[in-house]
Amino acid sequence: LHKAFGSLLAFLSCWLLHVLLGGLRRAIGFLTFSKYFWAVFYDKPSEIPWMGNELVACFVCWSVFSVLIFKPDLTLKIIDVVTFFKISALGFVIVLGVYHLAT
């Protein structure tokens, strides 16, 4: 991008992708997590307390960024564990899908 359009456009596109869109992606993920968190305690979404989703999302955001800033080596271990569980869940879904198709 730098060779084709110059340094200003390369900087602006990098800033847009990583700062603006990356932040929005994280915020959406944190809010989604907070809705699933409250689903454990409440049967109906209308029973969720006012600002409950936002408070849980802020706490998760603060926790994630605190680990990233203060314990970078712990971040790598967390990434390894999460990756293991993602791959395990994918394998579990594949096995159950094959079983379902076979029966």
Q: What does the secondary structure layout of this molecule look like, with pairings?
A:
Layout: H1 2-5, H2 7-39, H3 52-70, H4 72-102
Helix pairs in contact: 2-3
- Helix percent reads over 70%
Total beta-strand segments: 0
Q: What is the 3D form?
A: extended
Count up the helices. 4
Question: Poorly predicted ranges (pLDDT <50, ≥5 residues)?
Answer: none
Cα-atom radius of gyration: 20 Å
Q: What is the string of SSEs from the N terminus onward?
A: HHHH
Task: Give a short account of the largest sheet.
Answer: none
Structural class: mainly alpha
- Distance from N terminus to C terminus (CA atoms, Å) equals 52 Å
Q: What is the beta-strand fraction?
A: under 5%
- Mean pLDDT score, rounded? 84
Describe the structure.
The chain is mainly α and 103 residues long. Helices cover 84% and strands 0% of the residues. It has four helices and no strands. Helix 2 crosses helix 3 (52-70). The longest helix is centred in the first third of the chain and has 33 residues, at 7-39. The mean pLDDT is 84.
